[in-house]
Design goal:
Length: about 350
């Protein structure tokens, strides 16, 4: 059995002053709390969570999207496509993932064994979040055995078969890479004069030019409470006027960024989408998205300056162009972007 790692911690609360980051409730004196180390304003801090909240909201199983991460338990590299246990904290206010670390399932077993003995913890390795989404029954069985601390007989971690290469987005008209993404979006209900959060899967609408001023067109597929799927039309122009975030996507990033992906990341960040959300959509990390967008922005600026210099100071071309595009977008934005097709 691997050594119990330091993080997450299970310790007794020495007072009743700490609060659970998941539910906001107090953690009472003497009860066991889960501590997750996090960064805040450049400092290392420990965030505390009730064990039941932690087991329900702070763990999931998935496949490593890259081979750059290391196991927090023993420091060994996690290969791309290997199943891993992800521990994360989510902001109760914004719903954004704040801190995330990955573990090889066998290395998380000692922590899980201690956690699952605590009162109120009703999650077990065989029902942990994300398990159902693994590709094969063999992968699921391996993860459950590893998280349960069962001997694996030296069997190496399975690795997910390479997925088919992502569709060439630009050619299909999905220049923003939303096709197949699950999103949470604040959707206006015009007649009732309010908006409500909807969760659904976006798919590219075929037919038409697929583009234009309002960008690619999509369907949002949401599940009805009484069963079945409801489709709602939207466009990039409609989407970016609302709060939304990508929850998951079928995309696993190829090693290199394509020019289309960089352009999509920049446009989506500029619309106010968080880097975490853009990263989930593109199958990349938030840091990679931010870094790439910043580098591309600098390059564009440099090229613009060089161009202006070469033309002997004709620098008004850029601004006047954006002034033309702006009003055109605004004028169009009130049309039937949120029409409901039943
Ligand atoms: Zn809690």
């Amino acid at each position: 059995m691997p050594k119990r790692c330091e993080d997450p911690l299970l310790v007794e609360a020495p007072s009743s002053r700490s609060k659970c980051v998941c539910c906001g409730g107090a953690i009472v004196l003497g009860s066991t709390r889960v501590g997750v180390s996090a960064r805040h304003n450049g400092l290392s801090v420990t965030r505390w969570v009730h064990p039941p909240c932690f087991s329900r909201f702070c763990m999931r199983v998935d496949y490593a999207p890259t081979d750059r991460a290391h196991c927090q338990g023993d420091g060994s590299p996690i290969r791309k496509g290997e199943p891993r246990l992800v521990v994360f904290l989510e902001s109760a206010v914004s719903g954004k993932t704040k801190h995330q670390r990955a573990y090889k399932p066998p290395n998380a077993a000692p922590f899980l064994r201690d956690l699952l003995e605590l009162p109120g913890v009703d999650v077990r390795p065989d029902i942990i979040a994300g398990l159902d989404a693994l590709d094969t029954p063999e992968h699921r069985a391996w993860v459950v055995a590893a998280l349960s601390g069962l001997p694996l007989g030296g069997a190496p971690a399975p690795v997910r078969a390479a997925p088919p290469p992502p569709a060439v987005a630009a050619a299909s008209g999905d220049t923003l890479f939303f096709d197949g993404c699950k999103i949470r979006v604040m959707w206006p209900q015009r007649r009732k004069g309010r908006a409500r959060l909807r969760t659904g899967v976006l798919s590219l609408r075929s037919g038409g030019d697929g583009g234009g001023v309002r960008g690619p067109k999509y369907w949002l597929h949401t599940e009805r409470e009484r069963g079945g799927v409801r489709e709602r039309r939207t466009t990039w122009g409609g989407l970016r006027e609302r709060w939304y975030e990508v929850l998951s996507s079928p995309r696993e990033a190829p090693h290199r960024w394509s020019a289309a992906e960089v352009a999509a990341a920049r446009e989506r960040l500029a619309s106010g989408e968080s880097a975490e959300s853009v990263g989930r959509g593109l199958g990349r990390s938030a840091l990679a998205v931010e870094g790439k967008a910043r580098a591309a922005g600098k390059k564009a600026k440099r090229e613009e300056l060089e161009e202006v210099g070469g033309e002997g100071g004709g620098g008004s071309a850029g601004p006047s162009q954006s002034q033309q595009v702006g009003p055109a977008l605004a004028a169009d934005s009130d049309s039937e972007s949120c029409e409901v097709i039943d």
